[in-house]
Amino acid sequence: MSKVIISCAVTGSVHTPSMSPHLPVTPDEIASEAIGAAEAGAAVLHLHARDPETGKPSPDPDLFMQFLPRIKQATDAVLNITTGGGQGMAMEERLAAALRAGPELASLNMGSINFGLYPMLQRYKQFQYDWEPQYLEASRDFIFRNTFGDIEYILETLGKGHGTKFEFECYDTGHLYNLAHFLDRKLVTPPLFVQSIFGLLGGTGADTENLMHAKRLADRLFGDDYRWSVMAAGRHQMPFVTMGAINGGNVRVGLEDSLYAGRGRLASSNAEQVRMIRSVLESLSMEIATPAEARDILALKGGDNVAF
């Protein structure tokens, strides 16, 4: 088995500030959390920005530029910038930060889906900000748009235009076929970094057979041309990423995907989750990839070739 790449998704656009006092919001908090995760063993840091006053997900490139250079200076980690953004953002907003930064790696969602966050309304009695319950409720009628045209545009402007490679986020098996379509058209270049996602309402359920089916299908579609990774939402996070690693995959953890570090216990930091999965993997005799090794495994352009 090759070494396992640990990715950490530091803040995301799913959870809201009232859900955890440990969710990073300000550029300072995001930088600090990202650096801590890298020191704990994350080779890849997946990054979103938030409005520092309210904690609402923000596409503002100026906010990204307040933490990207700091993280780069303090770590050797691969910085992976979102192109998914957050609910209600236009494509131009979703792409703005990545186009400014020209990162080594960026997320790219491989199809349009319903993206339901509204069940979380039942878990919280009070919210710190008015936008939070409104944001969750709006997901009841929200389609996370990623059309073939959208994907082509991102591949052309960010991929071809900046030499950025992608974490291809696949929320169901149809997304794997979409990626195979772009591979057939030679619009994407191996090795493909395929992130299988489980447990989000609107995507593939967190069922063990679904994980194994995703791996079998990716093997059939991509053969040796891909590197697999697994992430899962909420309580499914640690069990599913562990199963993914046992079956030859890389792993993603972080407060974007789950706020917890055990049953009923909020994670105190992103680094805590990284340390947890690192301990599990090392106890199974798996070796953890360094950032340099992750760059080699994913064939990235290198940290000296970004615009921050």
UniProtKB/TrEMBL annotation:
Transmembrane segments: none annotated. Gene3D superfamilies: Aldolase class I (3.20.20.70). Its cofactor is Zn(2+). The keyword Transmembrane does not apply. Keywords: Metal-binding, Transferase, Zinc. This is 3-keto-5-aminohexanoate cleavage protein. It comes from Novosphingobium beihaiensis.
